[in-house]
Amino acid sequence: MTILKFxxxxxxxxxxxxxxxxxxxxxxxxxxxxxxIAIVVIVGYMIAMTGTKNTKLTLFAxxxxxxxxxxxxxxxxxxxxxQDELAAIQVIEKKVKNEDTVLDYQFVRALRLNDLxxxxxxxxxxxxxxxxxxxxxxxxxxxxxxGVARNYKLDFIWMEYYVEAYIAxxxxxxxxxxxxxxxxxxxxxxxxxxxxxxxxxxxxxxWDAVHDKRKKK
Length: 217
What we know:
Strand content: under 5%
């Protein structure tokens, strides 16, 4: 939820408070009641997005805004296929103004399509993305430079676990992949946890087809 949406929620609640005053509820009681409701809604939303391991709560909050560019890619991974993911990234490209955020998703698309040259070019254009080192580590792994990928110092332990899971996927080691994806999920909360769960579910759905295809190459 953006700052603008926070403001809109607060203004709507205050308007309801004033409406309550007009129908005879004491002004102080009405305004305090609706202000508290607004605060609870906003804090609850922030917890759902960043502070809880209860993915049902996070998914509920996401589905209330299922067309938001912030959520459509995660929901596409959870409920759709590759084409749905690619379509979601196209929406992000059109609607999201932050350049590094767009580049992050373009990098994800390049990896999904195994376009390593494109992924490298995207990283070179990143300026302030907090995920740049993480993306570089994934690119090194995709390039079969597993030792190099593991040596990157990443911002969060879940990122290190995810790199291990990604490598295990590339190597076709389902047992190790599952081990490290479950560790990845356990170390995250809110939207990131739901996203990691969606990646895990997607990869398991695609596992046999993807690895049969790799064996034939």
